[in-house]
Amino acid sequence: MNLNWVVDAVSSQVPLTEPDRIALSFDGTVRTTYGELEEGTRRYARALRDLGLNKGDRLGLLLYNDAEYPALLMAAARLGVIVVRLNFRLTAAEVEFILSDSGASVVIVHSSLLDRVAPVREKSGVASVVVVADSDDPIPDWAQAFEELKGKDALTRAELPVVAPSDPLCLIYTSGTTGLPKGAIWSHANTVNIAAMQALRWQFGKDTVALVPGPIYHAGGFEAVFLPALLMQGRAVYLQSGGFSTDRFLEVLQAEQVTDCLLFPFILTDLLHRDDLEHILPKSLRRFILGGDMLMPSTAQEVKRRLPHIKLCQVFGLTEGGAIATTLEDDDFLTQPKSIGRPLPLGEARVIREDDTLADVDEVGEIEVRNAGVCAGYWNRPEANAATFYDGWCRTGDLGYVNADGFLHLSGRAKDMIRSGGENIYPAEIEKVLSAHPAVQATAVVGVPDTRFTEVGCAVVVAEPGPTPDPAELRAFCREQLAGYKVPKYFVFVDELPMNASGKVLKYQLRHTYADIEARSTGEKSPA
Known about the structure:
Elements: H1 3-12, E1 22-26, E2 30-33, H2 34-50, E3 58-62, H3 69-79, E4 82-85, H4 92-102, E5 106-110, H5 114-117, E6 128-132, E7 144-145, E8 168-174, E9 182-187, H6 188-202, E10 209-212, H7 226-231, E11 235-238, H8 246-256, E12 260-263, H9 265-272, H10 277-280, E13 287-290, H11 297-306, E14 311-316, E15 326-328, E16 339-343, E17 348-352, E18 365-370, H12 382-388, E19 389-390, E20 393-402, E21 408-413, E22 418-420, E23 423-425, H13 427-434, E24 440-450, E25 454-463, H14 471-481, E26 490-493, H15 507-513, H16 517-520
Parallel strand pairs: 1-11, 3-4, 3-5, 4-8, 5-6, 6-7, 10-11, 10-12, 12-13, 13-14, 25-26
Antiparallel strand pairs: 1-2, 8-9, 14-15, 15-16, 16-21, 17-18, 18-20, 19-20, 20-21, 22-23, 24-25
Helix pairs in contact: 1-2, 2-3
């Protein structure tokens, strides 16, 4: 099954007596019916075809959450066009790499993000740029206004190409262990399958109103929770990007009468700081789905105490492995507080030793997942594909174990990765940038605990002879080339990095040394 069949089938099943059934709500203000969504995808499909896009071509979307974003993504799906979903926090250099790597020929960009595209469009091979302007921002003469895409006649279904379930739908770029991002290929089939698996697990239906607070360029914003709600004729609610506030979040929860809500743990922690929370949450709310980071057991206990009618669910997954691979459901939250649960329906998870044999109960090894949502591989990365995917299994890079009760537990990371506020950050990408600074002789970046974001980056730097660099200067240098969330929070300076006999930096020592840096240091100097 492809995504187009889903849109058509779900829309056609809406009873004639319910023509106003809402499919999408953007920030609780712009609502789209199922009929409008279906027709809108075919209307935008004609507009995209008029831009020269055909099956197999790549379309870059560099947009904030927007009322038109889902329809544009689904319109591309109609044509078999592959959508390259760009993180709006990326710098121009990062955008250039992804556009060049993916071979995107057309980019639709918000006017406030034009500075990321303008200097790189020719170098990256982009032929057409379409600008979404929500103000009087001028449109460059080399671009065209998004408004020109509107008002097109919808393509008939007979005019649309045949799109196979195995055809690519999206490229979602993840940071890489080598410092270069990799484009995870989401096919139509694995996109639909992972949505169906979630809908089965949580018994979504027509009464489901599911809210995702994060960006829908992310697999945790579209494929997770959002799409499963649409699959079952429910309502998908998503928020405006930037300026998140708990007040606005609560207003949308109430206005839409949300039933299921995807949250990052730090958002739930912020909500629990409100004394009036018990009285202002809508009575419709029945489940918090926690993703991105592990929920602290103490926070789970507070939710149980203050909001006993709301179920908790912890999810674990990765972009390559289908966004969500395992879940810890409410009944098991207190008896298995540190677990990431069990696989979704029709999914598997296991723990493997270094020799690829199955680990025993309670034995730590690398977690692997297999399900119909595992992505089709990386775009033009044969070596990475061979290292990550085999026989339907996806190596997650996370270390863990299965206990005697059959619950999966995380115990660390095989890959050198930082998990901060729901985003994956690979130190190699940061180290590559920092090493180019003339005052930096050598550097190693590690993750350290953080009260709000679970983990943040700490750059341990060996400076060149001379005055010690100003951390603010290094931070600004990083910001020129890296998205803000990748920039280390702390910079510390040392005479040398700890290394083994092979010359490899012993990062576990650095993580141990600076594990309490938040409490004992501002990070501007090496602790005594």
